[in-house]
Amino acid sequence: MSNGVGLWPVEFDITAYKVVFNNHLMVRSLWFTILLTVVFVGLTMGMTVMTAYPLARKDLKGRNIILLYIIFTMYFSGGMIPGYLNIKELGLLNSFWSLVLPGLISTYNMILMKTFFSSLPEELEESARIDGAGEFTILVRIILPLSKAMLATIALFYAVSRWNGFSDSVLYINDSRMYTLQLRLRQIVALNQSDEMINDTPEAKASLIPETVKAACLVFSMLPILVIYPWLQKYFVKGVMIGSVKG
After folding, report:
1. Which of 36, 43, 91, 115 is 20 to 30 Å apart from 212, CA to CA?
2. Sorting pLDDT into bands at 50, 70 and 90, what band is 149?
3. How large is the angle between the packed helices 148-164 and 210-244, nearest 10 degrees?
4. 163 exposed, middle or buried (CB, 10 Å; 0-12, 13-18, 19+)?
């Protein structure tokens, strides 16, 4: 903004990152969002598996009707206002679970997982039943170990969607202690609250401008996902391919 920097940076400076990492509100929102994402992914994966596995069974009575009922929600929803009134009537406003329960399962992710389960050879289940295995044993000891790529892919989908989500926080959360990182980032970038962070750090007043802090906050919010993604990348590519078409 001062026309002092061209294509090549003038000097290396981490003052903006010091401001961000020393801000207790940002750090608290970071740890809260990590906890929220871990709980959300664990519950959504459980719900998705428990829904997709029965629907992948051809001998499930009424399977097509149940599947049609679930797919209907992909095209029609109650909308934002009825959703808010529902959360309010359930007494979930300003609670941790208001950020978890409304998105407990994704129809799209469930269909991907169902398609993958359907592509597994039926002979695996038949041989397990001959050995005396029940449905739960088959799912836990045979189906899920063979589904690591798909599970990692769906888990990444859920984690990224929860990490980047902020609209539900805007609607349901008024307590600043439960502000997610993306909601805090929205306040800094869109509502120009970066000046407060600079004023809280005396040594930063002379060398920083709000745009520098905003950029540092953006990087701060992306770091956890950037750290996790390389470990799941190979499963992500494989899972999307094998779950997209039934073999």
Report:
1. 36
2. confident
3. 150
4. buried
The residue type at 3: N
Q: Write out the two tokens for 21.
A: 């990492």
Taking only the tens place, the pLDDT of each residue in 152-167 is: 889 988 998 999 888 8
- Which pairs with CB-CB distance under 8 Å and at least 24 residues apart come from 1-8? 1/209, 1/211
Nearest CA-CA partner of 70 in 105, 103, 40: 105
State how far the Cα of 181 lies from the Cα of 159, in Å rounded to an integer: 14
CATH superfamily assigned to domain 15-244: MetI-like (1.10.3720.10)
pLDDT tens-place string over residues 116-130: 888 888 888 888 888
Residue type, 63: R
Query: Rounded to whole angstroms, how far apart are CA atoms 72 and 212?
Result: 45
Tens digit of each residue's pLDDT (9 = 90 or more) over 196-210: 665 556 555 556 777
Rounded Cα distance between 49 and 29, Å, is 30
